[in-house]
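DM from R.C. (forwarded with permission)

"hey, sorry to bug you on a friday — could you get me a structure for this? deadline for the figure draft is monday and I only need the backbone to look sensible"
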Amino acid sequence: MSGNPILTVGTVNQKTTEAEVFVGGQFLLTQGIKAELAKLEQVAQNFENDPLTLSLLSAYLKRWYAGRLNGLDSIPVLLDQRPHGRALRRVLAAFQLKLAGASDMTLLYLLSLSDQAVPQLPMKLVFRSTFVERWLSRRDDYIRFLAPLGRLNEDHWHWVIENLRRLHLLAPPIPSHHDLLLVPEPIRGYLREELRLKNPVAYKQGCLDMEKLFRETVVQLYAPEPEIEEKPKPILWEMSELDTAQQQVLALRCSLASLRQHSHDLHQHLLSMRTANLVLSTQENNLQSA
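My reply, with the result:
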């Protein structure tokens, strides 16, 4: 599957300036590999003193051999005719042997088919949909290839991702986009070719599913810029408008004062009427008593 990558993420900076010479033996030591510095320098030279390769080698030795160099005997010796990058291919071949048949390796192969960061949820939906469809119609090499992923529950899925990141086979989380997954370029190039050669059916259908995923899903690596709310412009009054407004306020105050006075007079009038009614009632009662 071709295309320009949206971004390149690596576990180690592979470009060094003349002033920053990469010291492979010291790097292995800082990564927790247990041996004398002179021996580590020799190991680094044997693996081309390449930062990414040594980073993967360190993760491999720590995971399965407690950081000891006796794990070097388990790394295959390649006899191909391509000397460039052979050290990296050796380490990746060792990972393939350790992870053979595991869901980790299946996920890594699928992610290697994309040069773009892959969103997790759409990926699960697309590949599981294809798995169910082909399971009902035909059971081929692609079904057997996807089977390890089909057994993953949600917690195990996240554990597999974190495991691949700890092994440096998967790029670190992308800031603000932790749901996106990306295999570093040298690793995905190797795995993509391995899948194409060893399982052509899975390679072909995997590429089709990945194309379908990005055809139906828009991946945004940058959050949209927040909309700036325009503040309301202050209202500027003309002097004549202020005079008119002041006159209206004064007129309103006068009207309120008149209303209060009218209410007070009405209240007093009602009280006087009540008092007069009481006096008349008292006089009538006195006359009736006499």
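R.C.: lifesaver. The beta strands are 118-119, 180-181.
me: no worries. Residues 206 and 288 are 115 Å apart (CA to CA).
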